[in-house]
Amino acid sequence: MSEVAVQGRVGAPPAFRFERSNVARLAVAQALAGANSTIVYATGAVIGDMLAPTKALATLPISIFVVGMAACTLPAGAVAQRYGRRATFMIGTGCGVLSGLIASLAVLHASFGLFCAATFLGGVYAAVVLSFRFAAADCAAPERRPRALSAVMAGGVFAGVIGPQLVTYTMGLWPPHLFAATYLAQGAVAAISLSVLAGVRLPMSIAADRGRGRPLSVIARQPRFIAAVVCGVVSYLLMNFLMTAAPLAMKFCNLPQEAANLGLQWHVIAMYGPSFWTGRLITRFGASRVVATGLLLTAASSAIGLFGIQVGHFWATLILLGVGWNFGFVGASAMVLECHRAEEKARVQSLNDFIVFGTMTFGSFLSGGLLSAYGWNTVLWVSFPPLFLAVAALALASPRARRGDAAS
Known about the structure:
Layout: H1 3-8, H2 19-51, H3 60-83, H4 85-108, H5 112-130, H6 132-138, H7 145-154, H8 156-170, H9 180-197, H10 205-208, H11 216-220, H12 223-252, H13 257-272, H14 275-285, H15 287-305, H16 311-337, H17 345-374, H18 376-382, H19 384-407
Helix pairs in contact: 2-3, 2-4, 2-5, 2-6, 2-7, 2-8, 2-9, 2-12, 3-4, 3-5, 3-17, 4-5, 4-9, 6-7, 7-14, 8-9, 8-13, 12-13, 12-15, 12-16, 12-17, 12-19, 13-16, 14-15, 14-16, 15-16, 15-19, 17-18
């Protein structure tokens, strides 16, 4: 149905009138903005290895990127609560433009500190981009929310192509400053995303509902919410943990940078490609089963990585890791949507993202040190205990959640 038809439909709720237009714009912005994260993950550890005062700090720029994601989530929720999500989008995407410009300057001047500052701004941008999925759900009818959420995430498929190709074709354009042109290109792509987001029209109910709803302490005690957060944390933590280390591990194994770029490209495609179907799977089988499948796929990715250190082993690990993340994270996000009322959504969603990204920080900092000190196999083995924890949380919470729903 076209946007005009939706506007003209008798009795159409104002929040849903621009549903298709908004979801399409948010999906395009997701595709463009995803290049930011892909470029940082593909090059951050390599540039860190070149600029850092010690090799143990090689992955620090990626860890700072995650810190930026965590630090931004609660302020972004507050801005959305007061001024609406669109204001948050403009601020976050502006940070994405600055990130590219500052990172390029850092490479030109061989400044490790300046590069870390750039990746922090890139993390702020990435956190705002991840709120696109909840924004799409805001403007969709309840029965279409899982599909709207996954449709926006599907835009990341194109990010899996844009980001690595930008790295491959621009990394040597400004000799001898490797990757300087890459980050200029990333800033330009962020500017294009800004123009796309300017046309998004979202409901302002977030601002109207300010101050209403249950306390966060009450919402956060729901078994369903706890399971959603734990599974979201583990899915994103392990994806970041392994993806951060993989390009540098491939370098340590004397594999070419082009192989790492292509591995990251297929990883990101695997992260977002299933989103074309994830929403339908959630609707048909339930979010809990989709999340459980994602956790099992993540375990399989680590297991395959333990069999060898050839290019094929790294690629298979990264691809399975991407699919596992998609099922785990999108499913957990759909579970969060079940835990709040309309007037509570901004606070609950930002709390969820703050916990997810805050916990990711530890994984990012731990990843580089473990890889440098103990090797790639140790990084893979460390991923299993959190997976067992997430499976246990999901198994324990689901029956209690069903009983709670029946009582309600």
